[in-house]
Design brief:
There is one protein chain. This protein starts with a helix and ends in an 8-residue tail after the last helix. Strands 2, 3, 4, 5, 6, 7, 8, 9 and 11 form a 9-stranded antiparallel beta sheet that branches. By secondary structure, it is α+β, with helices and mostly antiparallel strands. Helix content is 25%, strand content 35%. The protein contains 5 helices and 11 strands; from the N terminus they run αβββαββαββββαββα. It has one domain.
Length: 244
């Protein structure tokens, strides 16, 4: 008899606890979604999210996406009369009220964008001002299609991606940690915070295969993309409200 009563009592206790929780209050991410025309020496050219992103993610999800470009002056060619341009694809996605349908673990959606052979590792991004925070680094191969519909061609390129999440007071490189922070803040504080998911992707070339105009090698690509993210973090994060 007691064993049959326990599940009902547990459910009743949980339901009663719900009414003791603080009311939810939406709090904004510490990251400003507005992208300036320049991030340091990088020029930003904003573009809209894809129709697929708009359909899959919740309606109140917000986007700031841009191709960030900078001329590679260290490889100026007097023969070609110019220097190559580095391009980083920068994406900032701001979660809506329903966090589960706004942002998720990036490794889950990258295969749908043609990425494969993903290799993830953890790192720390240090800013010139002394701020620092954890980030995730991913190496992948991306299959990219181009050309007219009746004659599509495909190439494979090496890609370097970095990402991190910015909440109201915390920055994390982990989707799992972000979820736990969000649950704790909702239960204890009543804070339904909006999280900004920042990712940046840049192609790179193998050293022995590089020719003029090709993407930089991995070491240089790593330096360039980290420098861009440092510019974004320094200018767009409200560091005064970040808990270290």
């Amino acid at each position: 008899m007691l064993r049959a009563f326990l599940p009902a009592a547990l459910i009743a206790a949980v339901m009663s606890a719900i009414y003791m929780l603080p009311p939810f209050e939406e709090v904004e991410s510490a990251l400003d979604m507005e992208l300036d025309d320049f991030l340091g020496s990088w020029e930003t050219r904003v573009y809209p999210p894809s129709e697929k992103e708009l359909k899959i993610l919740a309606g109140d999800t917000k986007f700031s996406k841009a191709h960030c470009m900078r001329r590679r002056v260290e490889e100026m060619s007097y023969i070609h009369g110019t220097s190559p341009i580095d391009v980083v694809d920068l994406s900032v996605v701001l979660s809506g009220h329903d966090l589960a349908n706004s942002i998720h673990r990036p490794e889950r959606c990258m295969p749908a964008q043609g990425h494969r052979s993903l290799q993830s590792s953890k790192s720390v991004l240090e800013l010139p001002t002394g701020h620092q925070f954890p980030i995730t680094r991913i190496l992948s191969k991306q299959d990219v299609s181009y050309g007219p519909e009746d004659d599509r061609q495909q190439v494979t390129r090496n890609c370097l991606t970095y990402y991190f999440f910015v909440g109201h007071q915390r920055i994390t490189e982990s989707h799992t940690e972000r979820t736990l922070i969000d649950i704790k803040d909702r239960v204890l504080k009543g804070d339904a915070q909006r999280w900004a998911y920042v990712s940046a992707t840049m192609p790179y070339a193998e050293v022995e295969e590089r020719e003029f105009g090709d993407p930089p090698d991995l070491e240089m690509a790593d330096k360039k993309i980290r420098q861009l993210l440092a510019e974004l973090a320094e200018s767009n994060i409200a560091w005064g409200q970040i808990i270290r």
